[in-house]
Amino acid sequence: MVQIIQAQNITLAELKQKFALHKSKDELFFTEWQTDLPNISELEQQFLDRVKKNYLNLVEKSSPLEDAVKLVVLSPLLDLAGFYESPFYIATEEPIEISETIFTDDEETGEEITEMIKGKIDVLVLQQQLWLLVIEAKRANFSLAKAIPQALTYMLANPHPNYPLYSLVINGEDFQFIKLIQSDKPCYALSDRFTLYRRENELYQILKILKKIGKILT
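^ that's the sequence the OP posted. Answer follows.
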C-alpha cells in the first residue's frame, strides 16, 4: 500500500522520525554563510537598493504572491549571483518524490506501507547535474518556519547524497539559508534570518552568500 504525503504538509518532526534527520549543534558545520564571503561592487549595491525599494513599494499596495516574489526579488539575485550563466542552469517546478517503507504491526496482513512524499521545487539551480541550490519562494505572508521542512524534504531527495546541498527559503522580505549533509544520518543547519525591514540592506549579505555557494562547486 502506498500513502502519498504532499511535501507542503510535512513537518520537521515527521522528517526526524522518517529519515533520522537532525539539526547540527556544531558551530563549524555551516560557516559558508559567515566566512570568506566575496565582495560585491558598488554597482551591485545600487542595483540591490533598487530591488529592495521595488519590493517594499509593492508590499505597500498588496501582499505579493509567489510569482511576484520571484520576479521582483529572486530573479535579480540569481542573475547577480551568476546562476543564469554556464556551468549553472535553472529548473523550475521540478517534481521530486522520496519514499519510506513502514512495517505495520498488523499480524493478520503483515502488510508494508510505503509513504511517498511528493512535491515540486520552486527553483532548482544545477551544476553538471548536481543539485547545488534548492529555492523555496513563497508569498509575503507565508512563514519561513513552514517553508523550511518543505525545502528539507526536497533536499533529502537529492540524487547526489555525497555532496553538501544548500537551500534558500524566501517570502520576499525574509530570507534564510539551509545546509544539508546526508552521510550516515542526514544533518542540517540554518543561517541567521535576513530581512528587508532592517535599516541596512541585507540583500548585500544574501548576494555574497549566494556567490560563495556558487564558487564551492565550480
